[in-house]
Amino acid sequence: MEAEIIDNDLEILSPEMVRKMNAYWRAANYLSVGQIYLYDNPLLKEPLKLDHVKPLVVGHWGTTPGQNFIYVHLNRIIKKYDLDMFYISGPGHGGPAIVGNVYLEGSWSDIYPNVTQDEAGLKKLFKQFSFPGGISSHVAPTTPGSIHEGGELGYSLSHAFGAAFDNPGLIVACVVGDGEAETGPLATAWHSNKFLNPVTDGAVLPILHLNGYKISNPTILARIEHEELDQFYRGCGWTPYFVEGDDPETMHILMAEAVEKAVVEILEIQSGSSGTTGRPRWPMIILRSPKGWTGPKEVDGVPNEGTFNSHQVPILVDADHPQHVQQLENWMRSYKPEELFDENGALLAELKELAPTGDRRMGSNPHTNGGMLLHNLHMPDFRNHAVDVVVPGGIMGQDTMVLGNFIRDITKANQSEHNFRVFGPDETISNLLGAVFEVTNRQWEARQETNDQFLAPRGEVLDSMLSEHQCQGWLEGYLLTGRHGIFNSYEAFIRIVDSMFSQHAKWLKVTSELPWRRDIASLNYLLASHVWQQDHNGFTHQDPGFMDHVINKKADIVRVYLPPDANCLLSIMDHCLRSRHYVNVVVAGKHALPQWLDMQSAIIHCTEGIGIWQWASNDQDGKPDVVMACAGDTPTLELLAAVSILREHLPELKIRVVNVVDLMKLQSESEHPHGMSDLDYDSIFTKNKHIIFNFHGYPWLIHRLTYRRANRNLHVRGYKEEGTITTPFDLRVQNEIDRFNLVIDVIDRLPELGSKGAYLKQQLKDKLIEHKIYVNQHGKDMPEILNWKWIAG
Amino acid sequence: MEAEIIDNDLEILSPEMVRKMNAYWRAANYLSVGQIYLYDNPLLKEPLKLDHVKPLVVGHWGTTPGQNFIYVHLNRIIKKYDLDMFYISGPGHGGPAIVGNVYLEGSWSDIYPNVTQDEAGLKKLFKQFSFPGGISSHVAPTTPGSIHEGGELGYSLSHAFGAAFDNPGLIVACVVGDGEAETGPLATAWHSNKFLNPVTDGAVLPILHLNGYKISNPTILARIEHEELDQFYRGCGWTPYFVEGDDPETMHILMAEAVEKAVVEILEIQSGSSGTTGRPRWPMIILRSPKGWTGPKEVDGVPNEGTFNSHQVPILVDADHPQHVQQLENWMRSYKPEELFDENGALLAELKELAPTGDRRMGSNPHTNGGMLLHNLHMPDFRNHAVDVVVPGGIMGQDTMVLGNFIRDITKANQSEHNFRVFGPDETISNLLGAVFEVTNRQWEARQETNDQFLAPRGEVLDSMLSEHQCQGWLEGYLLTGRHGIFNSYEAFIRIVDSMFSQHAKWLKVTSELPWRRDIASLNYLLASHVWQQDHNGFTHQDPGFMDHVINKKADIVRVYLPPDANCLLSIMDHCLRSRHYVNVVVAGKHALPQWLDMQSAIIHCTEGIGIWQWASNDQDGKPDVVMACAGDTPTLELLAAVSILREHLPELKIRVVNVVDLMKLQSESEHPHGMSDLDYDSIFTKNKHIIFNFHGYPWLIHRLTYRRANRNLHVRGYKEEGTITTPFDLRVQNEIDRFNLVIDVIDRLPELGSKGAYLKQQLKDKLIEHKIYVNQHGKDMPEILNWKWIAG
Questions:
Q1: Who among A58, A231, A775 is closest to B234 (CB)?
Q2: Nearest-angstrom CA–CA distance, A479 and A473
Q3: Which of 3.40.50.970, 3.40.50.720, 3.40.50.1970, 3.90.870.10 would CATH assign to domain A17-372?
Q4: Min CA distance, B466 vs chain A (Å)?
Q5: Would you call B430 an interface residue with chain A, using a CB distance cutoff of 8 Å?
Q6: Is the pLDDT of residue B502 over 60?
Q7: Start and end of every Xylulose 5-phosphate/Fructose 6-phosphate phosphoketolase C-terminal domain (chains A, B) (predicted)?
Q8: Residue A5: pLDDT above 60?
Q9: For residue A552, what is the nearest residue in chain B, using CA coordinates?
């Protein structure tokens, strides 16, 4: 199948315009090489000497000239149609290109006024690149106009779509590297076009940059047949336009035509004038240009331009290679800087006018500093959804189902603002958040059939793609451009995006240190269908370790919550959705469990983040014999059941019950802003009494968080990778977080309980055996366990 | 473009064969429904009663009949061509299908003789499914014939290719679910066909099962146009054959033709008789059949077959729905069990003979129990590559470059066995393992061009795809079928496969508990280009948290090593490659660093896993004032530099230097097989002296591992998410693992050092400032730091 032929009679670029655009491109290339190499002599006003070169030259050239080429062409089309467009640089190391271009258009100097539009500014621009204390070799948070860091690869297209949702006037130009295109997340992201509404959303214009090589290997997409590549993209639902070659003048004409064609098609699709019905086949551009284009043809006899040898620094310039100084100078002079910059180092006016101005400059597009556009959500009163808890444990509730009603109301309250969305990998209903479908739908542009549920071309829920990577990437793009959202996932499979979370947390950390970057809305995870509720899915669905992962990131950024019941979950989620610039991890269950706190108590408890549950404790004299602590819904249930056994059989034992909602409270105040002082910690946990801590996740996390505390008598139970297909209670038994084992833990640690304790222990061991037999025979838990109820002391 | 037309004159199935195959399929469907529902009355010899149904019915029906359909057709083709073929079940919950089929063919009873081929056996087969103590709803390690667990989705195709590499006689039939196909890893795995050699590797036959729905959403691939789907797969390099419909008889004929066509093409490609040159376009099958095919058309007036409502249990059978018992019975009787099984419950002989026998049965294929086929690697003597360390620190070395020579030799020594491969995401050369290309190449079947390096149609290195997911999936498939390998990656980006590692570790844990599953070779990670060697890549490339993640898994399975120099790295890697059924994580650097141990000392040190470095210590009287410990190459360098400062300036201070290679040594012996006793730990670390521990990763990991130890005076330095583009030493300073901050740590903790200590501290603080100024000015570290050398005490 042939690529569609572009009408060559349509002369888009006059020869004069070709000349100017090529000059602009040369200027960008010159600035890119300058950034990689030069410490001084930025305009080459004197012959280049080794002293002018940085002592340690690092950076990446290969992708850079192609991205400079794209940038100048996007500038043209923005001006022509007054487009609201910004640029996502997918290839890893496009820093010199984007930094150079946002400098040329003036955005860099607007943000960093010390880097002026003159020779002194050029010198600073060059020096800061890949230099200690300076900026990195990728596009980074420091780069104006960027919402996407090159570094780890694979997320550019998901970010682009996330930015485009609910931004109908926006076109996100997304340059995808052909190396990056081999990653899993990018490979599936092409299908995001099945979710983009042409009227209520913006557009994404992918530009696949086929420069042929990765670090030292060719790329797959550059080495399949032209017809295959065309089929691949048509199969992904795109209309590809090819721009292929290496002659600059020809390529400018081809690229201008392709960009024109693509943008006109986008505008036609959006206006409904394209004449097509059904899901549009959005245009995309495939740019095949040499890696390291316009760089040295060869270095020391080895081919460079057009090969993987141009990936990083093409010419090694140091004292051992004096002849390379001359080659570098020749290369830089090949761009004829004297024809591009005036005597003072400012870009010539006739070139400067090629760039858009003000907010239309891609480096100054407000969407790329999303906090500037961020509005608070309209938050309905979560207390309207309160579970009516008259006595603790007196009523059962399904926590995420209760939350679902609140999320429905939030969705509705913000519907006219188009700034709140729910993301998930087809688990919204499984996680019991289906109430949201009372007020909205799943956004879905592909074919519909009878019996489909809640599908519509426009809706606030994006949960129809089975890819945690897409959910995360879309949500990140949505948040980074100033909106709000929530990602609901099975707890175990959120590990799929460990690395994406890590990169986002790093982005938040760095942007929080940049005064011009405004805070964005927090990334909120709701991890439902958690480790203790996978009894029929089993071992593969059990992994509570995302919390461990999250806590390694900067304390300023991360928050982890384990609400014990529905009212606490409501209060926590209200807080999370109002917060800024955090990653909030909320773990909550969907199965019916006893509810503990009335709404007022829940609010107080969640505000404190940790608390002694007096109603469950009997140490009112303030001198407990043992502290029994818990975090997480299932561990809380079992702990309270254990307490009730202890209070019935060993009433003289003074027990203090502590529940932890906000995990960061356990850390020292020196380590986390939420951390408790040692005084407060000791007043809750005592300095030396035994603490039995029943935890939702891997037990070591609690040890780690409390490492600096004085009380070393801490015994943590949690998930220890045991159990698969079994009953809910048996899973707890296998991991020893169940009530019986907890009581035994207490007895084992308090020899003063003597024979009474020993007797109870034996009874409970018998009970465990009895239960095991019952389960194996009946396939369900014993009724007395299912029906257990807390009786207020 | 049209799907290729299959010649309908080719009558592959006689009407009699259609009848028999359909009967076999009915038997498999019957067994599947029985597994999901029945506790008793397996042959429906009496009318079904509620008592015969499991008290808690869980399981997944939707994908099952389609997979049963595929299985019977693969059986036919195996018999016809005497194929060596096995089955990978990608869709999440295909358990009832595969278990039913391996039972029908006899493989299940061979492995589990208590589940006999009669009514009693059927009852056991039914009861065990999704029942406490039984088997899970996915295909799992317990399932004979499986190397792939349904659960987390997305890895089936990568596993299939991993199994096919170097297995020229094998065809891996890989059923890919259309939900699974939306995940990133699966989406990019289609391109694995650019790496499969038709002569020296086996083949993969993907069967995309388009059953249209996920949990409650349609699937994307089922809702794009037929032409798009065809283009997509042709664009991915496959030749798709479509089998679409719902009438069983027609579908049997279509499927038989498609399978025939595909297998014949595979055999032609492999024999070179296909007439094509260049990269083959391997065949694949797209099976579009209704979800929950042959299940109830509707339940309680709601459509079921062909909708997402059939995903899990179609009919809720319990005391509240008495009429559903009858509907279930009708459904089961629709398969006419009395025509399929004899009076005793054995499958009729005329059906039994449809299945292959012996090792040709997919449930008994030896490749699926890879440990049975595993041979030890020929291991050349790693000592041949020893770095000649005459005095500690007297010579510089690049650890991974030294290892590269050893890996080259291993590759060569096993080349004729075709059982060892190196995997990586285009980082083999960057990680300095390029020596391997002296003896082999990168396997690459796509187009080659001038200036490519080390590409060939056959080679032991698979590092030309930029996807950690593929590397991991391929390697897992390769190991699971009884071979050996190593995965080299940047340390930060191995987090991309956190979740895959987790699933593999779970597989290893469960298979180690199944006596019939043989141990396989360990999964060896070499994490090179680590956190401390990303000074020019910066913040995005810094994440040492994979260790934290790994250590949460079962202690029997995981090992983490931090060799301090090249000789230790050689010794550790030799050990890892000889080991079985572990996940070994080895972190090693590539930059030139001082070498500490001669080979003999390195072997002893690595065998111990931890040791006091007497040559660096001055507490020979056995009474140190402070213990200075380290793990990792860079922390070791800085710690020794700190020790040398202390010994020069405060010679009266008695210092013990400890190096940890095997991180698990720090744990208690009760928690890890490598763990030290408290006695041993205390004898190394003392019971109460201050320990300054300089660690490669996040400091909390050391706190966590040593939590139970008596000595609480432990101060850990490590990576704390600081620093980006800067010099190597400045990065250490920013995270306070540098020599100066370590000395200050010691002084701060030992007030007895008095004014002498205070004076040194002030000097070092001045030095830190001086260094910072130097770096900002010169862009590199001060020469005295670069040139520092350990002087033996």
A1: A231
A2: 10
A3: 3.40.50.970
A4: 5
A5: yes
A6: yes
A7: 590-790
A8: no
A9: B698
Q: How far apart are the first and last CA of chain B?
A: 78
Its CATH class, for the domain covering A610-786, is alpha beta
Q: Which of A60, A196, A223 to probe the B interface (max B CBs under 10 A)?
A: A223
Any CB–CB contact under 8 A between B700 and chain A?
A: yes
Q: pLDDT digit string (tens) for B372-410?
A: 999 999 999 999 999 999 999 999 999 999 999 999 999
pLDDT(A115) > 70: yes
Beta bridge partners of A490: A528
Interface check for A149 against chain B (CB to CB < 8 A): the answer is yes
Helix/strand/coil for A409: helix
Q: Which residue type does B268 have?
A: E
- Across the range B610-620, mean pLDDT stands at 95
3-state secondary structure of B123: helix
Q: What does the alpha-carbon distance between residue B568 and residue B631 come to, in Å, rounded to a whole number? A: 12
Tell whether B615 is within 8 A of chain A (Cβ).
no
Q: Does A15 touch chain B (CB under 8 A)?
A: no
> What is the least distance, in Å, from the CA of A533 to any CA of chain B?
13
Q: What is the ipTM of this complex?
A: 0.96
pLDDT in tens, A81-105: 999 999 999 997 899 999 999 999 9
Q: How many CA atoms lie within 13 A of B227 on its CB side?
A: 6
Contact across the interface for B449 and A218, Cβ inside 8 Å: yes
Cβ within 8 Å of B, A 306-335: 306-309
Q: What is the CATH number of domain B35-369?
A: 3.40.50.970
Interface test with A, best of B223, B239, B533 (most A CBs within 10 A): B223
Q: Topology of B609-786 in CATH?
A: Rossmann fold (3.40.50)
| Comma-separated ranges of CATH 3.40.50.970 domains in chain A | 17-372, 382-447+454-593
The 3-class secondary structure across A99-154, one letter per residue, is HHHHHHCCHHHHHCCCCCCCHHHHHHHHHHECCCCCECCCCCCCCCCCCCCCCCCC
pLDDT > 90 in chain A, percent: 89
Which candidate in B233, B466, B550 is best for mutational testing of the A interface (most A CBs within 10 A)?
A: B466
When scoring B57, B155, B227, B426 by the number of chain A Cβ atoms within 10 A, the one with the most, hence best to mutate, is: B426
**Residues 399-428 of chain B whose Cβ lies under 8 A from any Cβ of chain A:** 426-427
pLDDT confidence of residue B71: 98
pLDDT in tens, B256-295: 999 999 999 999 999 988 777 789 999 999 999 999 999 9
- The per-residue pLDDT for B1 is 33
Helices then strands, each counted (H, E), chain A? 24, 22
Pick the CATH number of B382-593 from 3.40.1790.10, 3.40.50.1100, 3.40.50.970, 2.60.40.10: 3.40.50.970
B204-223 mean pLDDT:
96
Delimit the CATH 3.40.50.970 region(s) of chain B: 35-369, 382-593
Return the pLDDT at B296: 97
Quickly state the pLDDT bin for A790 (edges 50, 70, 90): very high
Nearest of A686, A771, A793 to residue A726 by alpha carbon: A771
* Structure confidence at residue A277 as a pLDDT band (50, 70, 90): confident
Q: Where exactly does CATH 3.40.50.920 map onto chain B?
A: 609-786
Q: Which residue of A has its CA nearest to B127?
A: A779
For chain A, how far is it from start to end, CA to CA, in angstroms? Answer: 78
Looking at every residue in chain B, the average pLDDT score rounds to 95
Helical (H) or strand (E) element with B595: strand B592-595
Kindly report the number of other CB atoms within 10 A of residue B319's CB atom.
9
Percent residues over pLDDT 70 in chain A: 98
pLDDT digit string (tens) for A130-152?
Answer: 988 899 889 999 999 999 998 88
- Within chain A, all domains assigned CATH 3.40.50.920 are found at 610-786
Query: Strand, coil or helix: what is A757?
Result: helix
Size of interface A-B (CB pairs under 8 A): 365
Q: Tell me the shortest Cα–Cα distance from A472 to chain B, in angstroms.
A: 12
